[in-house]
Every structure is written in C-alpha cells, then in structure tokens.
C-alpha cells in the first residue's frame, strides 16, 4: 500500500526529524556555553516548526471519504514534549525527577475512528 503524503506534510515531517536529529547528539553531561546556545537555537527552530505545522493544519483540506489523514494535534503534542525536555534541561528543577513519556510517532490517523489520545497499550 502506497501512502500519499502531501508536500506540506512531507515538509513538516522532514523539519521535525531534522530538529530531533540535531538535538539527539547533545548529551546531558556537563553543559558548555556552546551546548546551551545550540539548545536555545533548537528551541527557536521548534517555534518555527510549530508555527509551520499549525499553518499546515489550518490549510489542510478536509476531504470526505479519505480514509487516513495527517494527525496534526498529535505532532504538536510531541513537539511540545520535545520543547519541555529541552526547557527542563536548560532550567533544571532538582525537586523531582521528570516524567518520561514516549513520543507518539505515528501521525497517520484513520478517518473512520479519529484517535488523538496519547494513551498507549503496553
């Protein structure tokens, strides 16, 4: 089965993956000023990506009879989670450990049964 992806969706996905890959090599070891600058730059890129995804969601045509559609709310929730992780690293709270939550990662939703919940089966 071939999944057709509109150019706006492909662009959002590629920008999201590029941002994740840019942030991934940054380790939680002793933070350097350069690492802090890179994380702040990643936050600015997340801002731009969130605006782009929100614009794409607003411009996405709603086609009746389409079985699958791109799940923009789930992508935005994952971006917010990435943002929270970077923000926590930049301004750590030593009172309590963070709550590790998996990213959804699956942005193809079935139109017959739209499910934008963040629940996962173990």
From TrEMBL:
It comes from the Bacteria. Transmembrane segments: none annotated. Residues 88-122 are annotated as: Disordered. The keyword Signal applies. Residues 1-30 form the signal peptide. The keyword Signal applies. Keywords: Signal. NCBIfam families: ICE_RAQPRD (TIGR01690). This is RAQPRD family plasmid.
């Amino acid at each position: 089965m071939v999944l057709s992806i509109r150019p706006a969706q492909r662009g959002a996905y590629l920008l999201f993956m590029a941002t994740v890959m840019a942030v991934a090599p940054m380790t939680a070891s002793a933070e350097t000023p350069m690492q802090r600058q890179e994380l702040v730059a990643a936050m600015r890129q997340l801002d731009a990506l969130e605006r782009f995804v929100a614009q794409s969601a607003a411009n996405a045509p709603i086609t009746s009879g389409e079985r699958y559609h791109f799940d923009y709310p789930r992508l935005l929730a994952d971006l917010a989670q990435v943002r929270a992780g970077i923000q926590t690293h930049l301004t750590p709270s030593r009172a309590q450990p963070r709550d590790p939550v998996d990213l959804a990662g699956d942005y193809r939703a079935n139109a017959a049964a739209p499910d934008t919940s963040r629940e996962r089966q173990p």
